[in-house]
Amino acid sequence: MADRGCPLQPLPLPAEVRESLAELELELSEGDITQKGYEKKRAKLLARYIPLIQGVDASLQAEPRIPGPSQTMAAAPKQQKPRPTNSRDERFRSDVHTEAVQAALAKYKERKMPLPSKRRSILVHSSVETCTPPDTSSASEDEGSLRRPGRLTSTPLQSHSSVEPWLDRVIQGSSTSSSASSTSSHPGGRPAAALAGLVAHAHIGVPVNSRVSSKIQQLLNTLKRPKRPPLKEFFVDDMEELLEVQQPDPNQPKPEGSQMVVLKGEPLSLGTPWPPSLLAALQRWGTMQPKAPCLTALDTTGKAVYTLTYGKLWSRSLKLAYTLLNKLTSKNEPLLKPGDRVALVFPNSDPVMFMVAFYGCLLAELVPVPIEVPLTKKDAGSQQIGFLLGSCGVTLALTTDACQKGLPKAQTGEVATFKGWPPLNWLVIDGKHLTKPPKDWHPLAQDEGAGTAYIEYKTSKEGSTVGVTVSHASLLAQCRALTQACGYLEAETLTNVLDFKRDAGLWHGVLTSVMNKMHVISIPYALMKVNPLSWIQKVCLYKAQTALVKSRDMHWSLLAQRGQRDVSLSSLRMLIVADGANPWSISSCDAFLNVFQSRGLRPEVICPCASSPEALTVAIRRPPDLGGPPPRKAVLSMNGLSYGVIRVDTEEKLSVLTVQDVGQVMPGANICVVKIDGAPYLCKTDEVGEICVDSNATGTAYYGLLGITKNVFETVPVTAGGAPISDRPFTRTGLLGFIGPDNLVFIVGKLDGLMVVGVRRHNADDIVATALAVEPMKFVYRGRIAVFSVRVLHDDRIVLVAEQRPDASEEDSFQWMSRVLQAIDSIHQVGVYCLALVPANTLPKAPLGGVHVSEAKQRFLEGMLHPCNVLMCPHTCVTNLPKPRQKQPEVGPASMIVGNLVAGKRIAQASGRELAHLEDSDQARKFLFLPDVLQWRAHTTPDHPLFLLLNAKGTVTSTATCVQLHRKAERVAAALTEKARLSIGDHVALVYPPGVDLIAAFYGCLYCGCVPVTVRPPHPQNLATTLPTVKMIVEVSKSACVLTTQAIMRLLKSKEAAATVDVRTWPTILDTDDIPKKKVANVFRPPSPDVLAYLDFSVSTTGILAGVKMSHAATSALCRSIKLQCELYPSRQIAICLDPYCGLGFALWCLCSVYSGHQSVLVPPLELESNVSLWLSAVSQYKARVTFCSYSVMEMCTKGLGAQTGVLRMKGVNLSCVRTCMVVAEERPRIALTQSFSKLFKDLGLPARAVSTTFGCRVNVAICLQPNRLGKLAEQGTAGPDPTTVYVDMRALRHDRVRLVERGSPHSLPLTESGKILPGVKVIIAHTETKGPLGDSHLGEIWVSSPHNATGYYTVHGEEALHADHFSARLSFGDTQTIWARTGYLGFLRRTELTDASGERHDALYVVGSLDETLELRGMRYHPIDIETSVIRAHRSIAECAVFTWTNLLVVVVELDGLEQDALDLVALVTNVVLEEHHLVVGVVVIVDPGVIPINSRGEKQRMHLRDGFLADQLDPIYVAYNM
């Protein structure tokens, strides 16, 4: 895909004209001149030659192409003038490839895609230009004007008439969220025809007048296009969510050639007198020709600082070997013995010391392990290097004085220990630190045979580092093969630009050079950065015969060569391009030749080669005088390559890859190509596979890793029939390629960069190339891009991360990103899963400045990449989701019952203990009306304390005995009848803070026959949101009067209140602070127990205000059940930390103490905000055996007191008195929270089994309570069993089924029973649609029948139908007589092995979740809490999460507990985890500040409020990502 230029041919243009043209090209690509200026100047230059030049145009272009994220290279820059700051681009590109990309993009029509919103505070610029006018229609008419023909540009919408008013609006408007929606191209778009359909359906869905919803609308519009490829139709059993398996395309290209034969290299010539070993050669030159130069080192100015002669190298290596063997001891033992591994830590600028160290180790029979200099404690990949050193048993590191001074130090001044590194001794080997050996000392070095000579480290695709061991025999064979292949002669000069510590730089510049007594000029990377021409100048100065470079070095010199007329490359006979296997090297070679042919460079001198750490040099192109065939180019179809098949294509096609050969097989080696997957079968001749080498010159093993060594170094390729092709094992090179014409080797990619998406293979480097060719070229900072794949939902997904230029605006970023998506879609036919932009210089760097890809991938997966822009495209990429569930026609209720009978399953029903057996009915009759009970208590036990109210300091602020409460109630009753002139049956709103006044007001209402409604008072700091709810309850309940305190009365009538509600429409407001002491003539006694006692209003989690009616009979039945279940009587003390306004909290706070006579210690949850330990201290102080709290209280304690248990113990807090601590809730028990609470406060004596849960809902506020073993029953041993926990399959739950699984099995979800069913309560599980009874362990709606069911909804619009459906439902089959109330909760009953008090087997009720809250997606039912739990686990910065749906899109809101710049890390992690665990594609990810997700007093998330806030754009999100 690299380059579509014609093969080079002699051109009828003078050299200087060609040079000027090449310079013009560079200027254009640099952005130094405009396209117009370029065309003008070019036309002028060519005017005289126009007739000669038809059709040559393409080959005139300088065609360098872009390096990919290779670890061993510093990637080379895009074309650019050397800037004084040296911030040169690190990659380059092919102009031809650029044209292909531009042509591909030109096919797309610009399409609108919602831009993410980002909070201003994390925008780099918040200038007006970075915002976009809000989008009015989904596809505007003048889209055509957005493009210049053939080139995509980022012109803003100038033609919109609405621009000026919009500008004003932005300047004055709110800063809640930045850009609304923008015009930018859409990934994977279709040509314009598809747009017509979109415009027709411009607005589908609920029109909500807000910016957010218009974006969601856009997103829906863009998602309406059919996804590619379409999902296959197949039948799935509901139970199994089978992932779609991608079927092979019947039309995909298949290899058709014959089976390949092994390619044999020329034999190693036997005639030449080779030295018997490398050290023998060193000794020979060191003693016979000590003055011959061996290595010249340069400084950063290009000056030669030192020339090492062979004599010096020999003597210094001997000195080092002697020192290592004789002068290092630990505990009087020599520190090292032959065969030990030693780390070599030398900077790139010090080849001399490295060479001495390397040969010194060989002479001492030690194994050198060269590694990079650790610059900081957090170098990319440094931990893995440490792991390698540890596994090699390295204890000693050799370095230089200067380098040792620069290493990070600990406080002691010693070199710091790096994370994951073994403890090392550091030895400085500068001359003064070494000891001269005695005259008669000779090293024993045996450097022949299978012993390990050195270890070279290699980082794999996953980021793990392995050491490749190279034996002495291989080392010698490699030097001989290179000498023969390159025709090296004695005393030749070689210029080396590569890293001399590894790979070709080591093999040519340190090893083979010594064998042939060559002189190496080593060019440090730092010098190349300052002066990219330095290597060419040195070739010219030293008349070097060979040069060793990478593509980027040729490219850099192209940029710098203007005005350098005096360089000549005529001395070169070989220019070895070490990364010739990379797909972009061809462009560099062509462009380099194009410019330097006029300076003496002969075309046949350029010799690309291919190598790998395992096989060393695999192939190298030889000049014709060494017998090499002419070079070849192959233009291959991208589509064919993605199926592993070679198809030659025309250069006119957009999606082609142009590659050059990397020459012939090495002398003495055999090569074959085997299939990538499975057994190593030989490939066919037109098939791409992994190249394998059999020779004496390859690596021998991965140090210490026998398993993968066998797989890689001892592969036995077999024919299609399974017969081994040779008795010698082959080594896998990790290079993908094929054997072309003339037996030349072609490489098309590396195994490390291979990404298999579906059934097709893509090469990371090719995708990098496409991204870099997208306009504007200069967008990517220094061309730094990482492409890798991550496994999500059993398939590879492509992730592209690029560094953006520091001055790029938001608009530029998204313009560029959407184009990249289109280009990759067009050229590679593959979707990008995630595209992220990070600030300049933040991708992890490899040692020589390239991108460290495996580290970048690791950071991406850990959420540590910190991007500044993210675009996820899961909708287009993820095509293997399970098929949406088709609802089967329901089985009728009768068949269901018969089926259960046949299967021997009982019908799922359960009940609490019978009331009749439990008490004398006399008392029950006497206690039928609560006002009577209070009067009776005031009369019989007047001074018995019923209530104690605590403030934040823990002191008692008010108490009430039976008689005090009675008198207060009388006063209130008198005030209501006299002052407010209320009549019997009028409704009264009680707006009080939690306290005794509230309870007194409640009984006052009952005393005069009024119906009380408790209302939470408005929050003074937050009137705007809390006051409307108060007003609404007062209005809906038709309250004739509001009772409250003076302070709240002032608040209700204040100016601030008037801004929110109409304060003139309040009913009479009475404050009860100073009412006169009056008695009522007679206390009202209801004519029948079915008269309404009070109204209970509550806002459900779905945002619905529902009031239920409680009759006197239901009220006393409720108290009686709770009394029996919890064994409450006057001598008991219980602590309550609940809100007293609705549900069970209200009943426990206001009703139960009066009914049962026990004393209640009241702890208002609000006070915990200023003193978290208040509740637990109170429990300890009053030795309460029973206590009630809500999940929000429990959470405050766990979060707020986690680290303070020691302090509390010092203060004497002791919880061993607690027998039962019940969490009052209307939801599925939160196991994780209750368990962590129990564990945390075990230190304070809280018994392990004390915490339990309760369950109630609107139709019945108390269905289950789980008291622990208490009082008399415990003594008799007849109390109920402990709550049980089961594990269910989450996938089955989505299909409304219960499948029990073992703990820890995949997709398992723990559920704990919601408590013991209260006395007198019956529960049955009914089918949600057919209303038939279900069997044991079947999921259905929980229906309840009990004397304390509420009698109906109290609403303004008498919704009789809803009332009848919820409060008087009957089963459609079986027992059709009983009247049930429907709870609206899904759950199941399961008979356990445990027995309860009556000796019956215990039936456990498991609540799964509210039906109203469930999300219907892809035909399945999801519970938000399950998705939220997965999301919270995805990253440690996610404090809380809430999900909801909006027009079939799943919206995930996460609270970020961390820095704002980390916000965007969460987008991909959230999308991944929801895909993996729930098979859902997230549509929108919203990142907000902690505390934004609204939570009610019970600690339940108010998801619908959140949804309304999001759609009305009121959340002030940090970031909103719209997943495409």
Strand order within the widest beta sheet:
4-3-14-13-15-16-17-18-21
User: How large is the share of residues in beta strands?
Assistant: 15-25%
Oligomer: single chain
What integer value in Å does the Rg equal?
40 Å
Class by SSE composition: alpha/beta
Tally the helices. 44
Mean of pLDDT = 83
Distance between the termini: 27 Å
Poorly predicted regions are 1-11, 52-92, 123-209, 226-239, 1270-1278
Main beta-sheet annotation: 9 strands, mixed
Overall geometric form:
elongated
How many runs of DSSP E, i.e. beta strands?
A: 61
Helix content: 25-40%
Descriptive overview:
This protein has 1524 residues and is of the alpha/beta class. Helices cover 30% and strands 21% of the residues. The protein contains 44 helices and 61 strands. It has a nine-stranded mixed β-sheet with strand order 4-3-14-13-15-16-17-18-21, with helices on both faces. The chain has a seven-stranded mixed β-sheet with strand order 35-34-43-42-44-45-46, with helices on both faces. A five-stranded mixed β-sheet has the order 1-61-60-59-58, sandwiched between helices. Helix 9 (310-326) crosses helix 10 (351-363), helix 17 (551-560) packs parallel to helix 18 (585-596) and helix 33 (1112-1126) crosses helix 34. It is elongated and about 130 Å long.
